[in-house]
Amino acid sequence: MDRRNLAFDRINYILLVAGMVIVVIGFILMSGAGSTESAYNPDIFSARRIKVAPVVCLIGFVSMIYAVMRKPKDKEVEK
Q1: What digits encode the pLDDT tens for the residues 19-40?
Q2: What pTM did the predictor assign?
Q3: Is the Cα dihedral 48, 32, 64, 2 positive or negative?
């Protein structure tokens, strides 16, 4: 397989996986117990769940977009 014809290089894949991990961390930060009909849980409005976690997810999605848009550097192969 000719590596020069691939759309992504190793760095693109590393950045893409890092972005996915950041998005998963953001969704984990959003998780938690919710309110029920019999009990109100004020933690659903915590800063972690409504401010920090969406920003973390946004950073992850932006880094994934960058990983897809990044142009791999062409390495000249000496003959």
Answers
A1: 999 999 999 999 988 888 888 8
A2: 0.80
A3: positive
